[in-house]
Design goal:
Elements: E1 54-59, E2 63-66, E3 70-72, E4 78-79, H1 82-89, E5 96-108, E6 114-116, E7 122-133, E8 136-140, E9 150-154, H2 159-163, E10 170-173, E11 192-196, E12 199-210, E13 253-254, E14 262-265, E15 268-271, E16 319-332, E17 339-340, E18 342-347, E19 367-370, E20 383-391, E21 417-426, E22 431-438, E23 444-449, E24 451-452, E25 465-466, E26 470-471, E27 484-485, E28 490-498, E29 503-515, E30 522-525, E31 531-533, H3 541-547, E32 551-553, E33 558-560
Parallel strand pairs: 11-17
Antiparallel strand pairs: 1-16, 2-16, 3-12, 4-12, 5-6, 5-11, 5-16, 7-10, 7-12, 8-9, 13-14, 14-15, 18-29, 19-29, 20-28, 21-26, 21-27, 21-29, 22-23, 22-28, 24-25, 30-31, 32-33
């Protein structure tokens, strides 16, 4: 999810990390989390995933939020550790290559130590995180009544961008950025990196909801508006209905006039953006989210500063102070051997998620309602499905990779894309599973089953979920090799929710990391896992052309064919 808001928070007093600013190897920010993925190579199921490279940590500015309030705004950037900034600011230095990241939400205890905040106290609806380069600045765009948009620009000639192997001036990190953010693995596979030139600042744009129990913040509970009634599938858990952004009696609505499809919700224009098959199944089922009269929960009722209580309910004075704490794993960028990975998103509501500026396939709404199953249906039918069909090309749009942190450019993908990571985003407590399939071949690319918490402990809260992503890579036995997909590949996905009770305002997204086959001049990967840059290709082009359609290269064990790419064995791709 990519969102931007026009407010900029002016909080300060960022905690100091002291000696922890020193980059070092090993350990985890979240040591109590056992990171896994969903598509290990056969024989490696359940393998614990680990991060690679050095690391540094950084806090956000403090977030002050009252009970039942929404905090959704762009925060002031905070500086990165001095030794990181100076290391990559030196003339002639390499760019930084991020290899993974972790995140936690913490509060300071009376002795000054960090304490992870359970999500029944503070719910991370989503966040977007950016590392910004030295000469990057922020442009706020026109406010659209919901969350606005922004873009980045550069203060210098972008020739510097090219001198660092084309590394961007900004990187975004929003893979599995909902409430599953702490338990989901965010390490990139071997060779995949997110490079950035001269990083100096961290920018965070969070959407948080205070779900604390004002009577006792250490325990689940607290007042709810009438529209956030308890549901059978969350009874006895720590789940809090405020997390679904219920439309309270404080929200006004005006139905459309005449033949108009628009209405007004809380003073903002409501547009019906439910799309018909094959893009989505919402329009044909007349999902309640499609009409202003039946819209009961979601982002439109959850703006920054909104109080998620009815007008006859008094809010308390309880206020939390919390921080995002992030750890970034990194190394020096090696343009000849590293494979830059970039972000793509698709919502099963039928469009590109996040309203990336300029993309005509952007979805205006990425939420919908899970409809409760009728009484008396068999257990296997107590499920609500949403399905979408689209092409890989639909997720790409011409862009500038130097200043667009989510640039996915079809002009650079004539030979298709390598899939490197795929994460599903859906909501607690009812999300069950997500499947991504190649329609053309019938292959299931990724199948994820939700994992459920089982206690009151932070990162294991009952009633809340996380979704181990799929990941592909070379030079790692526990990973399957990356599929190479042409841009005209037709994809389909179904995401399923438990429909024992209704759940409004949920989401169904795929957040994908991909790589261009010729990124950084890499032509092919040996089964040894070593990338061979263009300048070191041992087979001259004329020889390969003369020997087509088939040439056996003695010693290397590679078969060249007239096909653009042919997979011979794991980690072995060849260009003709």
């Amino acid at each position: 999810m990519l969102f931007a808001f026009l407010c900029v928070d002016t909080s300060s007093a960022v905690p100091s990390l002291g000696a922890q600013h020193e980059a070092r190897a090993g350990s985890q920010l979240n040591p109590d989390v056992f990171y896994t993925i969903s598509n290990n190579a056969p024989g490696h199921e359940g393998t614990r995933q680990s991060f690679r490279g050095e690391w540094f940590e950084v806090y956000s500015a403090p977030i002050h939020i009252r009970h039942a309030n929404v905090f959704w705004r762009v925060m002031d950037p905070v500086p990165l550790p001095n030794h990181i900034v100076s290391r990559y600011a030196r003339e002639g230095s390499a760019a930084m290559a991020v290899t993974g990241w972790e995140v936690d939400v913490v509060r300071k205890t009376s002795n000054g130590s960090d304490e992870s905040v359970p999500c029944y106290r503070l719910y991370n609806h989503h966040h977007t995180v950016y590392l910004m380069g030295e000469h990057l600045h922020l442009h706020m765009l026109e406010h659209n009544g919901v969350h606005g948009q922004f873009k980045f620009g550069a203060d210098v000639d972008l020739a510097r961008h090219q001198r660092h192997g084309g590394a961007p001036l900004v990187q975004g990190f929003n893979q599995n950025n909902g409430n599953e953010h702490r338990q989901t693995f965010h390490g990139l596979p071997p060779k995949a990196v997110q490079p950035i030139v001269r990083p100096t600042r961290l920018l965070i744009h969070p959407m948080m909801i205070s779900t604390a129990n004002p009577a006792d913040p250490t325990k689940p509970g607290g007042p709810l508006p009438k529209s956030a009634r308890s549901r059978e599938d969350s009874t006895g858990t720590t789940f809090n209905g405020l997390a679904e952004c219920p439309c309270t009696t404080r929200i006004s609505r005006v139905p459309p006039n005449g033949n108009s499809s628009t209405g007004v919700l809380d003073g903002r224009v409501f547009i019906n953006d439910c799309r018909p098959p094959p893009l989505s199944t919402l329009a044909e089922e007349h999902n309640p989210t499609c009409a202003v009269e039946t819209y009961t929960a979601g982002l439109l009722c959850c703006q920054d500063g909104t109080v998620l209580l009815d007008s006859d309910q008094n809010n308390t004075d309880f206020e939390d102070e919390v921080f995002y704490k992030l750890r970034f794993y990194f190394k020096d960028y090696a343009p000849k051997t590293d494979l830059p990975a970039f972000h793509m998103e698709w919502s099963l509501t039928g469009g590109v998620a996040g309203e990336i500026p300029g993309n005509p396939r952007a979805a205006k709404r990425i939420e919908y309602d899970v409809l409760a199953a009728p009484a008396g249906v068999t257990p296997e039918k107590v499920v609500h499905d949403i399905t979408s069909v689209w092409t890989l090309r639909d997720m790409l749009h011409p862009c500038d990779s130097a200043t667009n942190p989510y640039c996915a450019d079809p002009r650079l993908a004539e030979r298709g894309l390598f899939m490197m990571m795929a994460g599903a985003h859906c909501h607690a407590p009812a999300c069950m599973e997500a499947e991504l399939r190649n329609v053309d071949t019938g292959e299931v690319l990724c199948h994820i089953k939700a994992r459920h918490g089982a206690s009151k402990r932070a990162k294991d809260e009952s009633g809340y979920i996380w979704m181990p992503p799929c990941q592909w890579g070379w030079q790692e036995r526990s990973l399957r090799e990356p599929p190479l997909l042409p841009l005209n590949t037709k994809l389909t996905s179904t995401i399923r929710y438990n429909a024992t009770g209704a759940h409004p305002g949920v989401m169904a997204l795929w957040q994908i990391r991909a790589a261009y086959p010729e990124a950084a001049g890499v032509l092919r990967f040996h089964s040894s896992g070593q990338a061979i840059p263009r300048s070191e290709n041992p087979v001259p082009l004329l020889v390969r052309i003369a020997a087509a359609p088939a040439l056996l290269v003695a010693g290397a064990g590679l078969t060249w064919t007239a096909t653009r790419y042919r997979r011979r064995r794991a980690s072995n791709y060849a260009e003709l």
